[in-house]
């Protein structure tokens, strides 16, 4: 830790003394560094699909176009990479709106059980294909809640899609809603590959992934958890992740039942 250091020596009635004042300058440096890293990451994440698209276009130009089957495959790759870039840019825009507090949170009364069931339904195809079972449990004391449905749906989509992505076929996902203090608490738990201890601390950072190649091949942008955290924060709640390698992962977030107007 670096800090500016000021020492004042003096004599008081009680005797000689020294007052030491420490001012943290590392906070500012860290912010600047993380900003630089972010720009470097964005550039890299956009450059990768662009480079792939370019090489496939060149291959088409160099003759692959004459072979319909090959050409179809190459166009397919280029399209997938384009989709990834669109997802990435959409996620980035969303993050920047949440960062600058420009995101308008419009809340509506929501039945929690319906919301969770609909979230699982959105993945029914993948779940069936991968033989992953989803169990939804809502404690009886859970009440309806005011929340931005689109945004909380996005949080749930990110968490459920992660649970599916990082859980082997035949796995199990449990979505639970209960109450804690004056908040609704929702958790999404899987029995998948888990996350190594050393990565846990950084897991909510933008673009942080345990395994970049795996995340990419699954279509991940590395922004899902950061977006989830910003949305939950905008609702006045908090989010945390617990995980054990080879055992599974549990992400829990809270949404306060009552909130000051300013947070909305
Ligand atoms: P991504 O788009 O890569 O999934 P996220 O921000 O959603 O990005 O997650 C960041 C990283 O955290 C992932 O790349 C993955 O390594 C890890 N991760 C997230 N959820 C899980 C989970 N349920 N099980 C195991 N690893 C996970």
TrEMBL record:
Coiled coil: none annotated. Residues 41-259 form the Histidine kinase domain. It is found in: Cell membrane. This is histidine kinase. It comes from Paenibacillus gyeongsangnamensis. The lineage of its organism: Bacteria, Bacillati, Bacillota, Bacilli, Bacillales. The chain holds residues 347 to 610 of 610 of the full protein.
């Amino acid at each position: 830790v670096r800090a500016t250091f000021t020492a004042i020596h003096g004599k008081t009635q009680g005797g000689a003394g020294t007052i030491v004042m420490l001012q943290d300058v590392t906070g500012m440096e860290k912010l600047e560094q993380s900003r630089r890293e972010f720009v470097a990451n964005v550039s890299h994440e956009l450059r990768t699909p662009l480079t792939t698209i370019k090489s496939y276009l060149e291959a088409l130009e160099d003759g692959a176009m004459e072979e319909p089957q090959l050409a179809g495959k190459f166009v397919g790759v280029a399209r997938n990479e384009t989709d990834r870039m669109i997802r990435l840019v959409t996620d980035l825009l969303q993050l920047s709106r949440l960062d600058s507090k420009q995101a308008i949170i419009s809340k509506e009364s929501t039945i929690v059980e319906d919301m969770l069931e609909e979230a699982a339904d959105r993945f029914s195809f993948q779940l069936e294909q991968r033989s992953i079972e989803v169990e939804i449990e809502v404690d009886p004391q859970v009440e309806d809640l005011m929340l931005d449905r689109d945004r909380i749906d996005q949080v749930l989509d990110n968490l459920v899609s992660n649970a599916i992505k990082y859980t082997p076929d035949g796995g199990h996902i449990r979505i639970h809603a209960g109450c804690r203090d004056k908040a609704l608490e929702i958790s999404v738990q899987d029995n998948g590959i888990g996350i190594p201890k050393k990565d846990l601390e950084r897991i909510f950072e933008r673009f942080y992934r345990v395994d970049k190649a795996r995340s990419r091949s699954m279509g991940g942008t590395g922004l899902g958890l950061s977006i989830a955290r910003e949305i939950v924060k905008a609702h006045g709640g908090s989010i945390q992740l617990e995980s054990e390698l080879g055992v599974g992962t549990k992400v829990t977030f809270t949404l306060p039942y009552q909130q000051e107007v300013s947070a909305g």
